[in-house]
TrEMBL record:
Superkingdom field: Bacteria
Name listed for the protein in its UniProt record: Chemotaxis protein CheR
Pfam families listed in its UniProt record: CheR
Domain CheR-type methyltransferase: 1-264
């Protein structure tokens, strides 16, 4: 009977049961059976089949939102600069159009609004749509009231500017909430964007990983059609390879996982290609940004036998990030493994191998690498956060919360 319910969820929201684990679905079913007073699975299946309302309630029980303000802060830094560039291109002809989906309880679309306001945009210069399949989380977003779990990391200055503390929670300023249009929407609905103008920026992060491959491609094609020709799509780190294989090109901004439609280049006759090669201007290399402190490799031992190869020099992790951001996960993995073999275990190497395992859809392997990174560096925030997300998806919210607390609190070292 659970198999029938899994198929229903797949047809309704595209959920691949293996991506979250059968235990998560079984737990959600038990919660809903208890909520409506049923004890037999067969009776619940009968009720479920005839009640769109109960189907929606089950979806909301299965889809456990895990989000916080300014998650992946590099993406919002990139958005601010890209939005200013896009605004200059449009010469004020229209407001910028942005969308966040799924928007969950609102942290992402409201982060987008705050990032643009901080960049100097007036509210009338942009429009943000925010969609989710869950009416419950949308109602949460409309209230704009958030607990401390929605604020993570050390850079919380925005909370003082845009929130007001209220009985232990934080109420978002109305001027931010008014920038976002919240509505129910399902990406598997073919009429979702009927009559909608394409967007300049689309945020669709960590959703595709819950679909099977055909559904991933189908949804990605829908997003591409809804993206302006010069628009930008922000996705999750585990989805970069999929994007690069399906007509999208990485912007090359480290840790942003931002993509644009790949240019369509017509084939040229051989003589034209030869002429072009003779007249092509020289390209000035773009300086790489400094490494984040978390990604800096440990000091290397001096080896007298031979000079270090370029792949294992000080910019190893910048190169790995660049390869991963471009969807070249196999090369990024190879470079990380080479670093391990030459220089021995390091938290940075294991973290990147975990992230790359996520990209390839190997969640058990990813968890193993994240645990190794945490063993070597107990307060490795990124590894803690990624492992916590896996535990939550596997139906262990208590374990996930312990890791989230560790990521937020320096010096806390609970066993994981």
């Amino acid at each position: 009977m659970i198999e029938h319910i899994e198929r229903l969820l797949k047809s309704r929201i595209g959920l691949d049961a293996e991506s979250v684990g059968r235990s998560v679905i079984e737990r959600a079913v038990r919660q809903r059976m208890a909520a409506i007073g049923l004890h037999e699975l067969e009776s619940y299946w009968t009720t479920l089949g005839g009640s769109p309302r109960e189907q929606q309630a089950l979806v909301e029980a299965v889809v456990v939102p895990e989000t916080w303000f300014f998650r992946y802060p590099e993406s919002f830094n990139a958005l601010a600069s890209l939005a200013l560039e896009r605004q200059a291109q449009l010469h004020g002809a229209r407001p910028l159009r942005l969308i966040s989906l799924p928007c969950s309880s609102g942290e992402e679309p409201y982060s987008i609004a705050m990032a643009l306001l901080d960049a100097g945009f007036a509210p009338g210069q942009f429009q943000i749509d925010a969609l989710d399949v869950s009416d419950k989380v949308l109602e949460q977003a409309r209230k704009g009231l958030y607990g401390r779990n929605s604020f993570r990391g050390d850079a919380l200055e925005f909370r003082d500017r845009f929130f007001r503390e209220q009985a232990g929670s934080f109420l978002l300023d109305e001027r931010v909430r008014d920038c976002v249009r919240l509505r129910t929407g399902n990406l598997l609905d073919g009429n979702l964007f009927a009559g909608e103008t394409p967007y300049d920026f689309i945020f669709c992060r960590n959703l595709l990983i819950y679909f099977d491959r055909p559904t991933q491609v189908r949804v990605l094609e829908l997003l591409k059609r809804q993206l302006q020709a010069e628009g930008t799509l922000f996705i999750g780190p585990a989805e970069a390879s999929l994007a690069s294989q399906n007509g999208l090109q990485a912007l090359g901004r480290q840790q942003t996982f931002a993509f644009r439609l790949a240019p369509s280049i017509p084939a040229k006759p051989a003589t034209m290609r030869a002429a072009a090669s003779r007249t092509r201007p020289s390209v000035t290399p773009v300086a790489r940004p400094p490494l984040p402190s978390r990604a800096r490799p440990a000091p290397q031992k001096v080896q007298s036998q031979a000079p270090r190869p370029q792949a294992q020099s000080e910019d190893t992790w910048t190169e790995v990030a660049s390869l991963a951001n471009a969807g070249r996960s196999a090369q990024a993995r190879q470079l990380s493994e080479q670093h391990l073999q030459t220089h021995g275990p390091s938290a940075a190497a294991y973290y990147w191998l975990g992230l790359l395992s996520d990209v390839d859809g190997h969640s058990a392997q990813a968890c193993g690498y994240y645990r190794k990174a945490i063993y070597l560096e107990p307060q490795h925030r990124e590894a803690l956060t990624h492992l916590a997300a896996h535990l939550e998806a596997q139906g262990d919210p208590a374990g996930a919360q312990r890791l989230y607390r560790r990521a937020q609190t320096p010096g806390v070292g609970d066993d994981d």
